[in-house]
Hints:
The chain is mainly beta. The protein folds into two domains: 13-59 and 69-102 and 122-290, Jelly Rolls, CATH 2.60.120; 296-436, Jelly Rolls (Sandwich). The chain is built from three helices and 28 strands. Mean pLDDT is 93; it is low at 2-18.
Amino acid sequence: MNEHPSARPPASGTDSAATGMMSGFGNEHATEALPGALPVGRNSPQRPAYGLYAEQISGTAFTAPRAQNRRTWFYRIVPSVVSQGEWRRIDLPLWLTAPSDDGSFPHTQCRWSPQPEPHAPVDFLDGMASYVWNGDMGAGSGLAVHLYCANAPMDRRYFKNADAEMVLLPAAGSVRLRTECGILDLTPGDLAVIPRGIKIAVDLPDGPSRGYLCENYGAPFELPDLGPIGANGLANPRDFLYPQAAYEDIAGEFELVLKTGGAFHACMLGHSPLDVVAWHGNHAPCRYDLRTFNVFGSISFDHPDPSIFTVLTSRSDTPGVANADLVAFAPRWLVGQDTFRPPWYHVNTMSEFMGLLYGAYDARPKGFLPGGASLHNCMIPHGPAPEIFEAASTHDLSPQRVDDGISFMLESRHPYRVTDHAMTGAGLQRDYPGTWQGLKRQFTG
């Protein structure tokens, strides 16, 4: 697998227009693949154009405040309620849902190597393995993080997740995400937000792919408040790109996999479920290029908390304490004077799961690989490797460009539980906690 993304200019309003995509996080979008397919002035006309069916998908309660309300109207060839065959229980044994009896709370730092590439054909669903989880899906809190490794497309197979909103982050190999709303193409460095209940299929246009999938059981991800930063900065809304309508009018034998209540069920369909000819609303998948993140930091001394790198946040019932924060460490300049510039040594009440999309992470250039992961749970100490500490302590403090890769962190108020698969598998780097033992005692008092 290619561990580095193909070159692509950063997304922008101009880029979205050139590629036919629609920009603006959480905006009310409207798109049609056939002229006149989208009703004008109403949502549910007596006779929609082209013999289509009107169907609404609601991502929040009907009575949620307008600013938080999420719903989309689909105009599709066949409504979702039709042509479903007998449902049967299927087993994806390594994909778990919170709460689960599987796993334990680790008492030390954890790090994993990337998932090995499978020898037999494995698609996105079958190549998924849960690593950490917290909270309770049924109670609407917490999240789970899975690592996937796939070498086959989801041919005539589709997936609907009723349990969670999903965030997909490829780390090697590109991904074509076909959805009810249209098509999103992703390379390492991109993420896709897939709302709860949206049907998808994952193709691999360049061969095998590995990466990460976050299931968010809590409040939908949104852009964080900017506070004293002001009106602009961090992840700009216009850089989130939404697909134009694109439908599949195909008959045959297809499988729909449904995840609900932590269990997987499948049924056969006589048509592709991606048959939406037009849609309007704000409950729709989108793509974001992490290379467009507008990084903020100190231009005098010290450096701010990593919360300044928050791309998206899922709020909890406690103001200022997130169910989940998705944080990105994107290319940036370090200029602080009389400052230790890497992340400091730290003991945190929030729990931190990290992944690397490509390149290297500046605080851990060795052993932390694209497609791998690390976990520093609640109150578990962590910080830069000894060689990074030595280098940063003697750096000449000239402006320093950090542009070796992109990593991300999923920070949560809930401690993560680590699955048995992650704790007993060959990918666990059992020597990781010992890597700090090279720090020298240098007290001179």
